[in-house]
Amino acid sequence: MDQTAETAAFDEFIRTRGDALLRYGYVLAGNSEDAADLVQEALARLGDAWPRVRKKDSPEGYVRTIMVRLHINAWRRRRREDLVAAVPESGRVDQYGDADLWAELQELPRKMRAVLVLRYYEDLPDAEIARILGVSRGTVRSQAARALDKLRIKRVLQEAR
Amino acid sequence: MRSEEDLIRTLRTAADQAAQPPAAPGSLPPGSLRPGSLRPGSLSHAVAARRRARRFRQRAQVALATAAVVIVAGGTAAVLSGGGWQAQPAVTVDEPTEDKPTVGEPRLQVRPAGEVWPGAVVKMPAKAADGWKYRPVTGISPTEVLVTAESSFEKAGRLEVYDTSTGTARVVGEMPAPEGVKGYFSQAVEVGEKYYAWYGESPNNRDKWADFWIMPREGGTARQVGEVTGDLSRVERIGVTDDHLVWSVRQGGVYRIPLAGGAPEKIDDTDGLHLTSWPLAAGYAPGKSGEKNQNRVVNLETGQSTAVEAAPGTTQLTCATDWCFGAQRDRTVVQRIDGSDQEQLPEGMEFFGGELLGERFALVSPSSGGDPAGDYIPVRMVYDPATGQIGGVHRRSPEGSTSYGFGTSSSPTTIMYWDEDKKGHRECRTTSPAGNVSCQSTERGGGKEFTVLNTLAIKPAS
Asked: Is the pLDDT of residue A123 over 80?
């Protein structure tokens, strides 16, 4: 594939998957600016590695892994103001019923929240979460358990994992 | 006690409600195959800009490696974050603001746009009377702003005109969704002589499909002009005449469909052309993605083609009727479309890319530096090539983030807007026994009023 076609394929990926990635970024980061920032940074890195990733791996899996790793590594927006192209919405959490739980999720350490997002939003098995985060399966389990305890969530589904 | 289902539902609901910048593929013509033409704000554009910055940063890091090591080892990442973003390591721990040294004077003294062009910066409500949120589209006169009103995020439902001289809004008409199309979003609105026009897509599925709509400018009922599929549906921009709706596609080429209904047809000799604003279309010279220069501007009504020549070292050369702007590394270059009056703008004005605001003004970024707590530092600057005047857009917040928006019209918009009540907020906490401090920046407040810069209200150069 020549470079133009690669570029086209990458742009098509952004176009078709950008929205889903922003949603994922939002549950990870808890706010739309950091979400947009995470998505953009992860896509930039994906773009640099595109021809290789496209051949060997799933671009979507790759970019989602980068996003969660960036996020828990306390990576921070560098030029935030350059990257937010609109006046973002505010007060969104008030618009739905689980505002308390959503707010408490924001209080969790990033890694704990990431484990919950991967398990309950991405619906990934613990072994896969362990691989993505570069930790043991036991760590994933204990982090998830502690997070659920903090959020006062009764564990049922987890038993099936 | 909560259940895991509660957690799953909360996460999904939050994702559904995720506020996205208009960069998200939900609202803007994604225009992504040809990043040289991307409008500011699109996700592809942001990613392309970030990749350029990354490359630059990687080079800068090599040059600054020695200093960076010393600084990071000393635990004062603050020097880096203040001293130059390009030197920051990939993983950064932000420091509390009070420790942050300021970096001398900003290189360029700029005044706010409202002082430079009194009357061009006005306030308007951020919401319609019924609570629907406004999204500014473009100025249609010096005192009128076309807006879409949204029932939910990015779901444009109504076209309105807000008159900034009287402070009143007028409903033009409803923007309906076609029946049976799931996930439909109406996209960029175009202002024609007789009609407003827009197109719609279902951007979150893989269908290659788009439809086109018109509404009389004096108001009335919207009418679907036609639907397209396949390559013809990769709409990047539209135009509307009295009898046709015109559009270009991301792979290049301009098509039209009669307003009265009928089959779409390709306009002759438009291979590789991309509409800028009907009847003008542009062609691009080969180049790196995101850096291509326009090399010809064609008037599709008269067939007249004007070759545009970029000076050596120029990238992203982008033209409107009279002027072109481009980047020369971190500088901005301006020229007339015939190549005359070529000039590099002063240091500290980095070309932001995208189209010319109001087909005349360049959007540039101020260089880092200065202390936003004391100095006026704009988030962006608007440069008028006709007069050489520079106006600052919004102001950089000393704390946290600052955001602003562009009008979402199909042809280059004439407006930028921001929310002055929205304040950056920065929260820091200790995250490790070693005393590392991590800070979060967010925005709070606002949502009532936009400040709008309408370049149509800037006097034409005499």
From this structure: yes
